[in-house]
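Dear colleague,

Following up on yesterday's call, I've attached the two folding results inline so they're easy to grep. Please treat them as preliminary; we haven't cross-checked anything against experimental data yet. The first protein's sequence and structure tokens come first.
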Amino acid sequence: MTDETFELSRRRFLDSVLGATAAAGVAAAAPWAASAAAQTLAAPVPRSGDRVRLAVLGTGDRGRALIRNIQKTRNCTVVAVCDTYAPHLAKAREIVGAAVPAFTDHRRMLDAGRYDAIVIATPLNLHAAHAAAGFDAGLHVWCEKAMARTIADCGAMITGARKAGKVLQIGHQRMFHPTYLNALKRVKAGDIGSITQVRASWHRNNSWRRPVPADATDRQINWRLYRDSSAGLMTELATHQLQVCNWFMDSVPTRVMGSGSICFWKDGREVYDHVALVYEYAGGRKVIYTSLLNNARYGCEEQIQGSKGTIEPELGRIFAEVPPKQLQLQRMHQDIARGHKRTVPIGGATWFPELPVTTPGESLGWSAYDETMLQFEGFGEAVRTGKPLPGLLAQAYWASVASLLGEHAMDRGEAMTWPTDLIAV
């Protein structure tokens, strides 16, 4: 893709975000996206020396993907990288170039200075400590989801940002995606009626276990499989979708119940490979969530179900409810009551199997432009102004709390109510 083509794609992406958020009710429900797109379009292209300087901590697969996205932004640049695992650091240096300083100790990187913000893509249990180190160094912080390994640490990150007077932004790319914003636009317009249920799932068919090189430990490479460093499916996958559920429900759950098990990959892992949960919301509404690692038939999806239709944003489709077929006996009774006469077919159906509706639905639109780039362009402008994108941190906080509360419900085998002592955001 040429620079000119890329810029055109970028402009169309930003226009689609602004178009979706301009609808009634959407700007209030997704103020971060409207703000990021508007600021990014309005801001002049900075000279190379005026870009927001980011130090990236954690250069595994996700960290390197973030670096590539940052490199495509107009207002940010990577000026340092750090990882404790040499092979990951070497791969990052291949992307950023030998002129960018590389560190194996995040404290030495922070001491070197000359940064505006730190980007954290380390294992979950390190997020809170690394964010605190960034704030102590006078830096703004962008951190991968989930926020932290405990609910208390999630709150501590918010408190730390406020005390330091710095921006804290958590990576939830669906919140910037035009398809999801268009879906929200249709919901606010009443196109699917009242939402009473969301079914969400993330199903894979692999062990999630990576080969361990001779120079590494299993906990270092497969940290997602151990309880001290991760809640597994809940914090690494469910957090994404629980944010979407809270967002479209326009609320947080009142309580959650669930069951988790290690039922297929009995390989010494400590986290569940199969989870099923029900999150209850005010008014009797529910989110039904499942995730597993031994069947990928249904993959990753959210089904937002209302009285008039269903939205499946992962597929980019909206489906209207199909009027139920009228049974012949029912129609005959209605005709008699009205005094009407008509030919009654012999052998007409008296019962129809209630199979899934297979209508193609309507497209919600899609974009070739990566919404993660808009996250960082928005973050860059937030760093410049010292003002976080509105509403973004609250969504991330509530999604992390929901995922960890679900873990607690499964571990204890009892329903867990929404905490009343959370930090106000």
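Below is the second protein, in the same order (sequence, then structure):
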Amino acid sequence: MAEVIAQEKQGGKQKKKLIRVDMTPMVDLGFLLITFFMFTTNFTKPNVMDLGLPAKSPTPTTNVVDVKNQVTFILGKDNRVFYHQQDKQDLNTGNLKETDFSGVKISKIISEAYQNAPAKENFTIIIEPTDKANYKNFVDILDNIAISKKERYGVTDIKPWEKKVYEELVK
């Protein structure tokens, strides 16, 4: 509420009016508005990437992914990515090849591996990030898989025999 206090000055005819405004109701209204907008505002929802996971099969499947029916990408440190189509016995530093994310190199590698696959319906892309790989590279490889329109891929830990060959190359 506003309050007007009239005060007479001594020695003159002029009256000075002091106006005092009580701000308590205004502060109450401000807090009510703040709480109203806090409760009615939509908070930003986290952005998540959908991973298409296959349904569980009632019968256990045997190893349907042959060495020639897959391509394995190893995501390393400093934006380095390596790939191979070898098994444990054949993998060495000579056939663990390095590429990068520039252009359509990874999509081209996936397409070439798909064309050379004996059973195209079982072609699988395997992604193995190392401990020093960054999230951006993981998203980039998933984008390249989406560009190449391959729906069958898996993310797994790097195997010890692959890690050994990878560490030899990175030295």
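For the second protein, one point worth flagging: Strands lie at 2-8, 15-21, 70-75, 81-84, 97-99, 124-129, 153-155.

Best wishes,
A.L.
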